[in-house]
Design a protein that fits this description.
The complex is a heterodimer of chains A (349) and B (464). Chain A has 349 residues and is mainly α. Chain A has 19 helices and no strands. Classes of the chains: A mainly alpha (349), B mainly beta (464).
């Protein structure tokens, strides 16, 4: 380790960590309209006091509305006089629509006997500062059951399809703790549900390893995402590959590894490169702790990431029938191919 | 391959244009034409990079001169849904995704232009049937993940049963392979005694077929799947899969999956898992896994015949959301290899969203990995901050401490940051940069600029 370089790097690391914590602590709440003060805490109704407000005093929603129908300045001015700049500035902060625009008929819902024109049962967040002013999807499904639509992956009657790709499920279909490990199975069993939000191209964004710029380089700003190959991947990849043999092979073919290793001169397929193997790796000393056969049995995929030259692989030179490397097939090995067909023929032919 | 892709792309675009034209034309037979209600999303991203690089060491260990290169990338994806077919409304979907690259600097090892079509298919739905034609993928179960040019037919059989079959030509990594590179590196650099022993770069004979049959209900699901893939020399893999899960309670799911290599007659991958949400603020997941690595290689790989060893893995992870602004995450896994050798890994971290509106996101994660020959401690700190509604910055730092030095280096550090500007609803810009100091590069400096264009159109949205 180069001690001279370590100190400034450590200082830089501490500075980034400190900035992270300061940034977290320094955050202030975005301005939000004081609904509670207007709806629940206003000294009103008595003689000489202003009249009491309800939702309809300021908002006039109907099925033709796509937004939350903010009041005009004149509405505020009725009580606040002409100084409405501060109030109106709050309206610049729109509530976050996690599911995009929804097709919702306010008139019809407000007329229902169970709702009785009340807004707060659905929009309880307007008077509770820590909750969103918009109801979660579970609020909708407390009355509406959509089991069949869920099965069929039909979201369009309520959601706008074009918004679905940007929607992160919060209550239903939530991608929870086991999701990343489980998503392959879900893609098999819930194909239509997945397809209601995700295009196939989104799968390719991670799984298509032939694209030049991987998803991690294209999305370095997504610190929330659990990308496999984050920007620190290079410095840990050899240990990760050793810890979980075959994990790389679930997505990558072996030439994916070697095309990079060759380009960087760390592959046996590049003339002049250094051998990564320790002394005693090959030869007649099969009892050596570093003998290659033992490692090859444990993690043959790592071997293949450099030594996969088809019939020209150097394994064949020693392990073909009659070769001094002996029979390489371990106990339990089996293949339905004939000895003269395909790759088998290069050893057995 | 190129002709197949081009045909599919042209057919897909033609269908969309025809649909748009049909929607715009008034009815001529006196009836009121029903407008075509469809959704169209288009996403484009352009990346520009500028860097110097050197392939070290060069042939026979020589030092090569550094190249200055400026690759320019364009990624484009398009998705149209619920297009009317002349005989059936809302029955056609179209997907297209492709990328292209141009080298604007010195380029001895790459061609000046490169690119690929990732997805290009048309889906037609008719009652319980769905037919997809073009470049697509099969995912999960025995297929694992594979892209192909071909056809998929899916049918919903009622009572929760579904079946699907697919077949076609395997998509090879590129239609425009890197000149001079063959299989594993440049043939001229190969240590092979006789490079001519390598077969000619054959790109035909890569075929695949498969299918699945499954059942689903509110209590659980199971799926049987089959996948066979051939290479020019013969069978690459022939696998059968089982995937099942049972919803034991509203908040507990138990699942199992097994992948069987039918040629080797051995279990390639088997897992048993439980996902639970014991409290609304707590997600827990535990899993046991059995893997035989050699079976992930093609049956035409010479190396696939050298091993039948497997390893076991068990562990779990969880997230505790203390409130809307603070969550703890953690997990630990143990691996048991042959000859009683062991490995382990674990991580623990926090995720903080102080304030309201998710303006700030902070992540701090510590991880520990113990592999057979080496291991590491790592610490990650990430901050994302929306400075003003249109401007967001992120900064990240990673530190690694290896148990055994790699190339005489015991530590690695990586620093990165981005600045993103949402110019309009459709247009966004991002600049990113990173610095790394590691055993693999004494200094790795990268920068990237992204211009992203996001366009969506919905006839339904316009009509509301």
């Amino acid at each position: 380790m180069r001690g001279g370089a370590a100190l400034p790097h450590a200082v830089l690391g501490v500075a980034v960590l400190a900035a992270t914590l300061v940034g977290a602590c320094a955050d202030r709440a975005e301005p939000r309209f004081p609904h509670r003060a207007h709806l629940a805490e206003l000294d009103c109704g008595a003689p000489g006091k202003p009249y009491c407000l309800d939702c309809n005093s300021c908002h006039a929603v109907s099925k033709s509305d796509r937004a939350h129908k903010l009041p005009a300045a004149a509405t505020c001015a009725r009580c606040h006089g002409g100084d409405t700049r501060k109030v109106l500035a709050v309206f610049e902060t729109k509530p976050e629509r996690a599911s995009g625009a929804l097709r919702f008929d306010h008139d019809r819902h407000l007329a229902m006997p169970t709702v009785q024109g009340q807004c707060v049962p659905c929009h309880a967040g307007v008077v509770e500062p820590r909750r969103s002013t918009l109801p979660p999807m579970s609020q909708c499904l407390s009355c509406h059951e959509h089991e069949e639509q869920f099965r069929a992956g039909v979201c369009v009657p309520c959601h706008v399809q074009a918004d679905m790709e940007r929607t992160v499920p919060q209550t239903f279909l939530r991608h929870d703790q086991g999701f990343v490990r489980r998503h392959g199975q879900l893609a098999l069993q819930e194909k239509r549900v997945c397809g209601s939000c995700h295009a196939e191209a989104q799968c390719d964004g991670c799984h298509d390893v032939s694209q030049d710029v991987g998803i991690e380089r294209r999305r370095p700003d997504r610190i929330e995402e659990e990308f496999v190959h984050r920007r620190d991947f290079m410095v840990r990849h050899s240990i990760e590959a050793e810890a979980q043999p075959a994990r790389c092979a679930r997505c990558h073919t072996v030439d994916t590894c070697d095309s990079c290793h060759v380009a960087r001169g760390v592959s046996g397929n590049r003339a002049g490169s250094r051998s990564p193997h320790p002394p005693g790796w090959v030869g007649t000393n099969a009892g050596s702790k570093s003998f290659h056969g033992r490692e090859a049995r444990r993690d043959i995929v790592s071997c293949a990431s450099c030594h996969e030259q088809g019939p020209a692989t150097n394994c064949i030179r020693c392990h073909k029938v009659g070769g001094f490397g002996g029979n390489p097939h371990p106990r339990g090995w089996k293949s339905g191919g004939s000895e003269s067909s395909g790759m088998c023929g290069y050893c057995h032919g | 391959m190129k002709a197949r892709s081009t045909t599919t792309v042209c057919a897909a675009l033609g269908l969309i244009l025809a649909s748009r034209r049909a929607a715009a034309e008034p009815a001529t037979n006196g009836k009121v034409a029903r407008p075509d209600h469809f959704d169209l999303s288009v996403h484009g991203e352009m990346y520009g990079e500028l860097f110097r690089r050197a392939l070290l060491p060069g042939p026979s260990g020589s030092i090569v001169e550094a190249d200055t290169v400026a690759p320019l990338y364009e990624y484009l994806s398009l998705r149209a849904q619920d297009i009317d077919a002349p005989w059936r409304p809302d029955s056609v979907d179209v997907e297209l995704a492709a990328w292209g690259r141009a080298w604007l600097g010195e380029h001895e090892t790459e061609g000046p232009l490169d690119g690929d079509v990732q997805t290009a298919n048309v889906r037609y739905r008719h009652g319980p049937l769905a037919l997809r034609l073009g470049r697509q993928h099969a995912a999960g179960g025995a297929a694992r993940y594979v892209r192909f040019d071909g056809v998929t037919l899916a049918v919903s059989l009622g009572a929760g049963f579904e079946a699907e079959g697919y077949g076609g030509f395997t998509v090879l990594p590129r239609w425009n392979a890197r000149p001079g590179y063959h299989l594993l590196g440049a043939a001229a650099d190969s240590l092979l005694r006789d490079p001519d022993a390598l077969p000619a770069p054959e790109r035909s004979g890569y075929r695949l077929a498969g299918g699945r049959f499954g059942w689903a209900s509110a209590q659980g699901q199971w799926t049987l799947s089959f996948h066979e893939q051939d290479e020019p020399l013969g069978l690459a893999r022939r696998d059968a899969g089982f995937d099942g899960r049972v919803f034991v309670r509203d908040n507990v799911t138990v699942g199992a999956a097994c992948l069987l290599d039918l040629d080797a007659e051995r279990v390639q991958d088997a897992r048993l898992w439980v996902d639970a949400t014991p409290a609304s603020a707590l997600d827990v997941s535990v899993e046991a896994l059995h893997v035989e690595p050699a079976l992930f290689l093609s049956r035409q790989s010479v190396l696939s015949v050298f091993s039948t060893d497997a390893y076991e893995e068990a562990g779990g992870s969880g997230v505790l959301r203390i409130n809307d602004h603070f969550a703890l995450e953690g997990g630990g896994w143990m691996e048991l290899y042959d000859e009683d050798r062991r490995g382990a890994r674990g991580e623990f971290g926090t995720r903080m969203l102080p304030g309201t509106g998710k303006r700030t996101v902070v992540r701090l994660v510590y991880a520990r990995v113990l592999a057979i020959d080496n291991g590491y401690h790592s610490l990650r700190a990430s901050l994302s901050r929306r400075i003003v509604p249109a401007l967001t910055a992120t900064v990240e730092a990673y530190g690694y401490l290896y148990d055994d030095p790699i190339r005489d280096r015991a530590t690695s550090e990586i620093y990165g940051g981005t600045l993103s500007y949402q110019a309009t609803r459709a247009l966004s810009l991002m600049w990113g940069a990173s610095l790394a100091d590691s055993p693999y590069a004494s200094l790795d400096a990268q920068t990237i600029v992204r211009v992203a264009y996001d366009f969506d159109f919905s006839t339904r949205r316009a009509g509301r």
